């Protein structure tokens, strides 16, 4: 007979997390926006006093924005991977925003900023340390994460509730996010005459709120305002950035992330970049090693 194996219990609940789905954080234009929250357990820990008091634990926060071409993100897509970060001791919120067909830019950015303010306003309820907040996004969500990082000092982009709270963050993680939408719209999605190619161009026109032409520079201004690279100049109060991109990405060009990274470094900001060799857009871009890299960056900056 095999001996009965013994394993001690886990009174601290270390490595255990819970999911709180469908928390409404904003309702712009009557559109209910909800986030899913993955929380480490426990939310309280004994204080060590004779009276048996407890103290509230506080965890750093990751606000995650799934890529979606600026339409409705699939908030469930990365929950299995994001749960690993919660088990490491992060509160993780996977958030949504209005689609570019419901509201032109910068509505998507305002919505993500709303989620950050909401979570800070409810920091006690969700065991969040409001001083340790990061934003992480993929593809269009990476564009949004970068924009959150470079527009922290622009209160005109905060709209809605909880305006007494800050939408600024300490760290930004961007995975293959567009950095220059003017370039994308005028180089990747136009024909030899500079006129829009219908495939893909409707997204940029929805973001801009009007029809586009490569020859109409004033008409491209709405896209410049949602191009993170256009905000980078010395002397601003930026968070730390970690940019990750596959060098075989056919959707968002690797060179565009390099341009963003180099401009951040040349302007004196704290930035790192990781090249994933042979990686496309999503898919085999992801690996356990990549998640470890993201965790190391967040551990260092939060």
- The assigned structural class equals alpha/beta
Helix content: 25-40%
CATH architecture descriptor name of the largest domain: 3-Layer(aba) Sandwich
What's the CATH class label of the largest domain?
A: Alpha Beta
Domains (count): 2
**Strand-residue proportion:** 15-25%
Major pleated sheet? 8 strands, mixed
Instruction: Please write the string of helix (H) and strand (E) elements.
Output: EEEEEHEHEHEHHHEHEH
Strand order in space, largest sheet? 1-2-6-5-7-8-9-10
Q: In angstroms, what separates the terminal alpha carbons? A: 50 Å
Label this structure with key terms.
302 residues; alpha/beta; Rossmann fold; 2 domains; globular
Topology:
Layout: E1 17-26, E2 33-40, E3 44-46, E4 54-56, E5 59-65, H1 79-87, E6 91-95, H2 107-121, E7 128-138, H3 140-150, E8 171-175, H4 181-188, H5 198-208, H6 221-224, E9 240-246, H7 254-266, E10 271-276, H8 288-301
Parallel strand pairs: 5-6, 5-7, 7-8, 8-9, 9-10
Antiparallel strand pairs: 1-2, 2-6, 3-4
């Amino acid at each position: 007979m095999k001996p009965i194996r013994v394993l001690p219990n886990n009174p601290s609940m270390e490595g255990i997390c819970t999911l709180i789905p469908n928390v409404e954080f904003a309702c712009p234009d009557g559109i209910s926006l909800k986030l899913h929250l993955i929380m480490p357990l426990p939310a309280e820990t004994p204080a060590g006093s004779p009276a048996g008091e407890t103290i509230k634990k506080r965890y750093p926060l990751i606000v995650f924005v799934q890529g979606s071409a600026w339409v409705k993100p699939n908030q469930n897509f990365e929950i299995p991977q994001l749960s690993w970060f919660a088990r490491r001791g992060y509160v993780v919120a996977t958030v949504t925003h209005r689609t570019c067909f419901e509201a032109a830019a910068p509505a998507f950015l305002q919505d993500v900023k709303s989620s950050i303010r909401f979570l800070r306003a409810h920091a006690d309820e969700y065991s969040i340390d409001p001083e340790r907040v990061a934003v992480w996004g993929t593809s269009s969500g990476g564009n949004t994460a970068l924009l959150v990082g470079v527009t922290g000092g622009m209160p005109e982009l905060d709209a809605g509730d909880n305006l007494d709270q800050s939408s600024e963050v300490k760290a930004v993680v961007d995975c293959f996010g567009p950095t220059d939408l003017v370039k994308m719209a005028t180089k990747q999605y136009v024909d030899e005459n500079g006129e829009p190619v219908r495939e893909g161009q409707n997204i940029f026109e929805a973001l801009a709120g009007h029809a586009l032409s490569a020859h109409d520079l004033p008409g491209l201004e709405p896209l410049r305002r949602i191009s993170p690279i256009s905000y980078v100049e010395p002397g601003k109060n930026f968070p730390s950035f970690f940019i990750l991109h596959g060098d075989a990405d056919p959707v968002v060009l690797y060179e565009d992330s390099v341009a963003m990274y180099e401009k951040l470094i040349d302007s004196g900001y704290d930035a790192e970049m990781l090249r994933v060799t042979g990686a496309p857009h999503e898919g085999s871009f992801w690996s356990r090693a990549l998640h470890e890299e993201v965790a190391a960056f967040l551990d260092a900056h939060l």
